[in-house]
Amino acid sequence: MRLSTVPAILASVLALASPALSTPSNRATDIERRDLRQIYAAARKESGVLQVAWGGDEQSDSVAAAFESLFPEVKVNVTVDLSKYWDMKTDRAFLETGSDCVDAAFLQTMHDYPRWKSEGRLMPYKFREWEDVDPRLKDEEGYYLGAFFYNFGPIIYNENKLPAGAEIPKTYQDFLKPEWKNKLVLTYPNDDDAIAFLFSIIIEKYGWKWFSALISQNVHWVRGTATPGKILSQPSSQAAISFTTFPTGESNIKLVLPEDNYMCWPQRGAIFSSTKMPESARLFLSWVMGDDYQRNWQRNGLAGTRNGFGAQEMFQKEFVDPLAFEKFMVDRTKVEWYKLQFESQIGTAQGLSPLVDGI
C-alpha cells in the first residue's frame, strides 16, 4: 500500500538536500532546434548506458533494439516493469541516494509526474516537434508529456474458439450471456490501475450487479494485460474472448471496438534531472516523439500523441475520454476503494508476476 506520508517525506528530503532543486525553475524552456543527427553527435560524447524505465508487464527488447539500430554508439537499457513498481523504485532510490535510479521514465502512473516536477526531480525538455502535441497532453513548461496512447476495453477474441452461433459482444453487458460462461479470460482489476479504471467505467453504467454476474461466468482471472492475449492463443485453453488485453499479432486473434464506454490514456514520459547522460536522454525522448515511432502507434485504435499521428482522433472518439484516466489516478482514495471492492469479491491477485510467469 502506498503511504500517504511518502510525498511529504520526499519533499522534505529534497528541500534539505538541495534548496535549488526543491521547486522547478520558472525559466522558459526553449524548443529544441537540433535534429536527431545533431543530438546524436552530442550524445556520442557521453559515456555509460542510458537507463530507461518502461511501464509494462512483459519484458521486450524491441524498443532498445530499434533505438540502437539507428544510434549504435548510444547504448540504452530499456527495463520493463509494472508502472506501480517503477514509481516506488525511483522514489526509494531518491530517498536513499538523492538521485533517481533511471535517466528517463515512460509510465502509466500519470499522477507521479506533477509530483516529481514539484519536487524538482524532472529536467524540462521540449523536443523539436513540441508544438505538434496538444496542450492537454503535455506540461506547458516541458517537464513531462504524453508520449503515446494505450487503451483497454476493445474486445479481443480467438475466432477459432468461439461458441457455435455466438455473436461477438457489442457491449460489456453482452458478456453476461450464457454462451460466454467459461470463455472469458480477464486481468485482475485489483492488480492494475488501468484495468481498475476500465471496470469502474463499466460499473458506473451497469452497477455492481454486473460485476457479480460477470464473476458467475467463471472468469479465468490472470495477472498482466498481455497474459489474456497469450492464453487466447493457446489451443489447450477454452478461453475465447477478453476485453483487458490487446492483439497478439496472430491472424486468428481479432479486435473489435465496443459500442460502450472504455478507457485510453497517454502514457507519460519525462527525463529525470539527476541523469548523467542528458544528451542521450534528449535523443531517446526525441526519437520516441519522432515521426517513425509515432507512426507505429496508429494501429488497433491507438495513436501517437502528436497531432500528425492520430492524437486528435482520440479526442473525437465516441466512447472514450483520453483525459479521464488521469483524474482517476490522482484520486488515490477512489482508486484504492475500487481495488479493495474487487479484491473483496474475487480475492487477491494470484500467480507470479507477469514478467516472470512464463506465459
TrEMBL record:
Domain of life: Eukaryota
Name recorded for this polypeptide: ABC-type Fe3+ transport system
Alphabetized Pfam families for the sequence: SBP_bac_6
Cleavable signal peptide: 1-22
SUPFAM superfamilies per UniProt: Periplasmic binding protein-like II
The species this protein was found in: Sphaerosporella brunnea
Higher taxonomy: Eukaryota, Fungi, Dikarya, Ascomycota, Pezizomycotina
Entry keyword set: Signal
